Amino acid sequence: MTELTGVYPGTFDPITNGHIDIIRRGLSLVDHMVIGVATNPSKSPMFSLEERVAMVDREVSPLVEKFGKSVKVQPFDELLMNFARRVGAGVIIRGLRAVSDFEYEFQMTGMNYMLHPGIETVFLMADPRYQTIASKLVKEVAIYGGDIAPFVPPQVREDVMARLAETNAK
């Protein structure tokens, strides 16, 4: 029996409790997970690609120990389907929070299928506790002085606050 590799892509700027929940649940579906940290020219990231890869790696390491699954955090700057093919993925894992996510993901899935019909996309509905969490909103809350502790792991909160302090000091 062959092992199933899944790719969970995102910009993870920053990684949130919602992302971690999807990763945790996705690990029960695959033998090996590649978390693809994407560059995205349409977004202005708070953290560099290298910082985001390190942050994701740090935050998922407890899950690796808990589930005993193979997980690799890897940057990518190419079409998702090319990346998925390159890492040998049979499935793309995506999280859905709301109907608006579905509409976007529906279009992306159709396009991805046209590019590589051999790779399936699996959608996991966000846990109700995390349905409103988005990295963009986490950053906005932090910028305006709100508490982001309910939305991100403790070390990520510290990372965000430190970055804001650096930015404000300039």
List keywords for this structure.
about 170 residues, alpha/beta, Rossmann fold
For the CA atoms, what is the radius of gyration?
16 Å
The largest sheet, given as strand count, sense and whether it forms a barrel, is: 5 strands, parallel
- Tally of alpha and pi helices: 6
Number of domains: 1
Tell me what the CATH architecture is: 3-Layer(aba) Sandwich
What's the CATH first level? Alpha Beta
Overall, the morphology is: globular
> Strand-residue fraction?
15-25%
Helix share of residues? 40-55%
Q: Could you give the order of strands across the largest sheet?
A: 3-2-1-4-5
Number of strands: 5
Quote the CATH topology. Answer: Rossmann fold
CATH homology group: HUPs
Give the SSE order as H and E letters.
Answer: EHEHEHEHEHH
Q: What is the rounded distance between the termini?
A: 56 Å
Mean pLDDT comes to 92
- Class from helix and strand fractions: alpha/beta
Unreliable residue runs? none
Structural write-up:
This protein is α/β, with parallel strands linked by helices. It has one domain (5-130): Rossmann fold (3-Layer(aba) Sandwich), CATH 3.40.50. 46% of the residues lie in helices and 19% in strands. It contains six helices and five strands; from the N terminus they run E-H-E-H-E-H-E-H-E-H-H. The chain has helices at 17-27, 49-67, 80-86, 99-115, 135-143, 154-169, and strands at 5-10, 32-38, 70-76, 91-96, 120-125. Strands 3-2-1-4-5 form a five-stranded parallel β-sheet, with helices on both faces. It is globular. It starts with a strand and ends with a helix. The model has no long low-confidence stretch (mean pLDDT 92).
